[in-house]
Amino acid sequence: MATRALDNGAMGIVAPSVATHEEAQEIVQALKYPPMGRRSISSNMPQFDYDGSGIANKIKQLNETTLIVAMIETRQGLSNVDAIAAVHGIDIVLIGTNDLCAEMGITGQFDHPDINLAYEQVIAACNKHGKWAGMGGVRSVELMRKHIANGVRFVLAGSDLTHLASGAADQVTKLS
User: Among 26, 64, 84, 128, whose Cα sits 20 to 30 Å from the Cα of 13?
Assistant: First the structure.
């Protein structure tokens, strides 16, 4: 499904629940063109207005610019975060905080010491391997700011539905 999204013009993929170095490598292999990966080449790319000329340069450009985000959502992924961050082609290693909290038996405790330690581990691995640390699943602006101050550089600050619902609730409050 991820390659279909890319074939239709998406410029990046967030891969959920990456737990091992091997899984991270498989993701890169599936989402990058040769020689980085094994993704099928098409000359009809929406990113280039379906112009099939100069395909070699376009493939190179897409390999350089297609964003691949590996989500850490399990204890296994967290224990392998250094190896995952080391994979060439992974751009961002992102903690899926909701799912990681649930896996750790601390559902909803986004500022729990174990989650703070997980952020430290991910940030350190990303810094070591020249990647960006990311976060998602946290709605608290205070916690987002805390992790940004500590080195997170990519933030999923909510979904379209979350933002629409928040805006609608704000409008209702203003009119009440």
Answer: 128
